[in-house]
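Appendix B, Record 12. Input sequence as logged:
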Amino acid sequence: MNAFHPKCELFPPVKKGKPFKLQTLEDISLYNGEEYILDLPAGFVSDGASVPKIFWNICPPLDKYLAAAFCHDWYCDLANEEKDYQIRSYGDSHFYSWLKMCGVRDMRAVPMSKSVIVYGKYLKLSKKLN
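Logged structural output:
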């Protein structure tokens, strides 16, 4: 996954303070060597890594971990659509391994993966996902 460079179109934020969006321009199959990970359809929309703007100097939303962010966003979108925390939890629990596949060092991968797990649990506790 570390050579993942999807053909995407970048859309500016709709409102000030809102994230930009990336939309895939073609179907993308993600693999780690021979291991199949996920198919993303053309037209899939992501915001890259959902990093608060204050941290962009340390962890920009578009970096070598873009494939991991796309995978995680796919599962988040599916969880929101189905209102199913288990789907979100699957994406959260695999985010760390996807980051490592992208070549992200533990110093960055651990806090990023812990952040998405904590936020996923917040969504469950706030009953935004069942």
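The longest strand covers residues 35-40.
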